Fold each of these.
Amino acid sequence: MKKVANNFCPVVAIDHQDSRPFHRQIYDGFRTAILRNNLSAGQQVPSTRQLAQELGISRIPVLTAYSQLLAEDYFETRTGSGTFVSQSLASLKSAIAQPTNGNGTHAGNRPVSRRAQAVTTLGSWPWVFGWGAFGVGQVALDHFPFATWSRLISRHSQRVHARALHFSDPMGAPEFRKEIATYLRTARAVNCDPEQILIVSGSQQAIELTTRVITDPGSQVWMEEPGYWSVRRVLMMSGCSPVPVPVDDEGINVEEGARLCRNARAAFVTPSHQLPLGSTMSAARRIQLLEWAEDVGAWIIEDDYDSEFRYESMPIASLQGLDRNSRVIYIGTFSKTLFPSLRVGYIVVPHDLTKQFVAARLASDLFPPHLYQAALADFMAQGHFARHIRRTRQLYRERRSALVHSLQQEFGSSVEILGAEAGVHLVIKLPPDISDLELAERAAQEKLWLWPLSRTYLGPPSQGIILGFGSTPDREIPNAVRRLKCLISELREANAASESKAGAAD
Ligand SMILES: Cc1ncc(COP(=O)(O)O)c(C=O)c1O
């Protein structure tokens, strides 16, 4: 069988004006790339013939350079396989590595924006990326119809029309947008037609794009307090000021919002299932919020991220469906209904804003990729999406009941459970002597992924933890809750011991 080279050609520049001969330029190019770690020990290099062809020169200087590099042990050959960077360099690398300039690698003025600097202070969160018990945002992958999904992906990757591989509509694929509009009108009572649907890479991009279209640097935006942490990053990056508006069991407190900042440019809300506390916005509050927006000329961003999963009643209709003044920009995602790594979500854009949204889209990633849109359009049209939601709703109902039951069994009435009526997470409040951040950090070491409630506040926080139940099978929940109880007891004991030590020292 003909052997196909699997190696890329490294950047070895040949300069015809350079006084050094070609073989010396090639030798220096490889040597520098190896010492700077751009080529690593064991990595294959191109054959002399391939490199000569790429550089457009004769093979002789390449052969001369290679034999020098072989003689000095920068290269080694393996019979029948080709030429490689010497394995023996692996252990010597750190000793011989050279900085890229005499002053070190980060010399000189290196300005970054104040916004980027501010966002990095939000810190790293070990519990975000862990997989396992209580992980927030994790879904039941064990029940995902992978066979159907693979069939659709395979079909769409095999039979692709050239048009689908070229630049396409910045709003997204028309057939997919049609399916989404039908779904939203039917299941979420959203007033929309396919022309308003803009396909994005998840709610996060939706929030970012929307913020760019409707705000200016310095604009004030209501955020639920406590609220969705990722919105804070977006607002900071856009130079907006978040205005934390308290939520209660009817949702965002509109009167308080108006008192704090009546003329805000927008309000970001999660009316179907408030993140994190889980309340559903009451009808009265919805009307109050819409009236406020109409009065002051503000926008409402409705993040409807997990409303498909409601356990004690039918799903609650969207806020957008009540809006008579096209003030609501509705955002949805497939991250909870299917899985987050799809990175597919959508915005229902008010008709009069589509031009601005398209312009903003063209300024960022131009248009969404084709393959998942095509597969998802079929997945929805053939009924798999609706079926999967029905199945997982029942499954999450069971997982949620198992979690609530275990929490009640282990903690009795000493913990308050919030927001268990919908979605794939709930919240338990902690007594103030327990730091949720400390608990989450300790738990992460044991692969329990608790999200500290305090991180969802902009102002003075309450202590608590957010527990996801989407990915944990019922049978594993009691054990996970027992481990959680142990961790809380250990933390309490450690706190008591350090307090008594401090007391003795006084
Ligand atoms: C309030 C809220 N909105 C949206 C999302 C989903 O974001 P994305 O669609 O970017 O994955 C999440 C995920 O946890 C969320 O908590």
Note: The longest helix spans residues 477-505.
Amino acid sequence: MPPKWNIVIAGGGIAGWLTASVLARLADAGIGTITVVESKGIDDSLGVPCTVQTTLPSTPSFLKRIGIDENVALRATQGSFTLGRAMSNWTGAAAPGFHAYGEIGASLGPVAFHQLVAKIRSGGEVVNLANYSVAALCAQSGRFARPSEDSRSVLSTMEYGLHLDSAAYTAFLKQDALALGVAVISGEIEGVELDDGGLIAALKTTGDQSIVGDLYIDCTGHSAKIIGQMPDCEFEDWSQWLPCNRAVSRSYAGNTPLPFTHVDAHSAGWQSFSSLQNQQGELFVYHGDSLPDLQSGDLPHMFTSGRRAKAWVGNCVAIGGAAAVIDPVASSQMALTENAITRLIGLLPHDRTCRIEAAEYNRQTREEHDCIFDFVALHYKANKRVGDPFWDACRNHAVPDRLAHRIAVYESCGRIVLYDGEIFEAASWVALYEALSVFPRRYDAMANGIDAGQMVEHLKQIRGVMLSAVGACPPLRDYLALQCAAPIYGKIK
Ligand SMILES: Cc1cc2nc3c(=O)[nH]c(=O)nc-3n(C[C@H](O)[C@H](O)[C@H](O)COP(=O)(O)OP(=O)(O)OC[C@H]3O[C@@H](n4cnc5c(N)ncnc54)[C@H](O)[C@@H]3O)c2cc1C
């Protein structure tokens, strides 16, 4: 059992308040006191944050695990559901690809579904994998229901993430943490005071206030105000592979929410569209000064993709943007934050030097960052926008060996290479390869042992069962109204 800690969390963004709220739930286990140091406003150097937090299916599970009622969170944040990402203009293909959350099709004996499809395609048939995903079919028809808990139902094969109003989610988490006894100090952190052993003795604020704790959690986002001052924590810059470095966020009223996130590539980056219950969020992410239609009032948010070499040094742990800033194309930041909190709780140290726990935490964190890097960098490396200088340069730039190996194995035989720290499972990798028109040259030889007619029948059956299940799901608007309508639901803001 760890001793009672005085935990100081620096930064009152989503990562800060989520960490506070989760740690506060451990109060009964004797965790000690938790204090959040919050600066007054948005950090101006970073510009306007994204209006809509777009999360992966890890967020509903995380909220459930920590005891937050998802419907309550959705009501408070104008929240809605996302069944995956429609990806348009990443290739020359007219139809968008769809990265659906959850399973795609069903294997036949030992042969994975996408391998069956590869075999059928080798005979000249056109098969769209997304036609065999409940999440994709629901998204296409604007329908939604939470997955069935009955594993015999095809509706149990889908998963969903959330779209949440960023400011409202921060306020919701803050309210939750305060109700659980978390203390808050208003102040802008200027620096740290180290003791003789190199551990943090106190945080210093601009008003010359000293904030003393045992364990310091840096949630100051991109500015990494604390971890950035610690030894061995240099920022590893990934911008040669993830070159986008500006983001502009816009929002407007709209009361026809769509149950998916739309990610559309443009000449120098991409833009996404995410629906809240009564609002539509747009995020333009691009490289340099090249956003084609920058509007007056747009305040570009500057960022560099990369991570801290170590996220935990001495008695300081970085969580959220302070640990890693990763191009948000795959909506992965929230999952990284949630996993970091879970990892920290699993490794809460017994003494302030924390060396062993920190080493293990850093090993797991780096592994996870490497995996997410590969998934995000694949969007750039495997794009098919031939003739766009930005995208040509991304495609022609060599990627680290690990990602090159993943792509080579998939192109050779359709196998998905997976490592320990994956956030995305095999189905997501297959969906992304498909959306980027990366196809295997050969299919699983075991598919030769299955009769062609049996395969076609298998696909027909799956699709039939899925279509009738999806047809029984309500339109997203009706589901929101029934389950979690925000107070202003039905009115245009
Ligand atoms: C360009 C970009 C676009 C993104 N778009 C999306 C998206 O569309 N959807 C999505 O889900 N996620 C997106 N993300 C990720 C998202 O921003 C983060 O998941 C989320 O904001 C949580 O981050 P955070 O709390 O770590 O940092 P932040 O949100 O940056 O919060 C940091 C907090 O620390 C405070 N702070 C900073 N310095 C100090 C200081 N010296 N003293 C005291 N307090 C301080 C700030 O005021 C702020 O409150 C994006 C990230 C980037 C970089």
Note: The chain is about 30% helix and 20% strand.
